[in-house]
# Entry
Amino acid sequence: MNMEHFLDPRPKVKNSILIVDDDPLGVIALYNALNADYALYAVKDGQSAINKALELKPDLIVMDIFMPEMSGFEVMALLKQQEETRDIPIILITGLDEGSVEEKGLQMGAVDYISKPFSETIVKLRINNQLKVINAMRTINQMSITDCLTDAFNRRYFDHMLEQEWLRAIRDKTPLSVLLIDVDLFKAYNDTYGHIQGDIALVRIANAVKSALKRSVDIVARWGGEEFAVIMPNTNIEGAEKIADDLRTAIEKMGIPARDGSLTFVTVSIGVNSTTPGSGGTVTDFISGADKALYAAKDAGRNNVCSAI
# Structure
């Protein structure tokens, strides 16, 4: 599965279901069965289903096979061809008790069938079972891409997304920026205050980095022990430097509570790199430039921001 889309972290709200059916009575029956537990959306034709699926990225699609202009099979085939929608599970609705119809749908990637006329109990059970699987997979995979201490993304997810954003920037001819952030003298901080307090400091710093980034497309990851990394799509060097210096200032002023009630303080050094991919260079070169800039910030006395030349 495409990790970028399937694992997109979402707030814990009701699962969303897109109902696709040209029969108003069928839609009403599904609405009555499911409305209490799920966020429901309904459309009555295939093209509207594709448009709505792209807009909403629902957790599940429940779709009638037989509709005018475009059948459920045709809609499913088109959804499976698109990166943004190919992993959305689809339950098909049919009034036909034919094994060949069910077989075709399953071969095309449907996860289940619901037969007309509806049994409300069966509808609820089939949909609930599918969403249990979806939610369990999402939880497991979310854990696999998240740093357990800071709740930032981990290095694995950062590397994956940097490759994705690099390719996107080449395609769209847009700038891409990255920040590498290192906590200054963190070993000395741990030696002075203890490793538990060090963990508290890392959590506070991760939260400060997240707060400094206002866009959902920006990605914050724990790069290493006391290092963090940020991907900022469609951001030029001036914008990246401004965010980096604002972040450096915010962390410098941020008091980190200690167990005795006092406040402790840390600073960070930040390396910045920005480019518009496509005119040579690689992702490895790009990160290497940010890493060299980080070392330059350290060499300049720490608590600094430096950019790659």
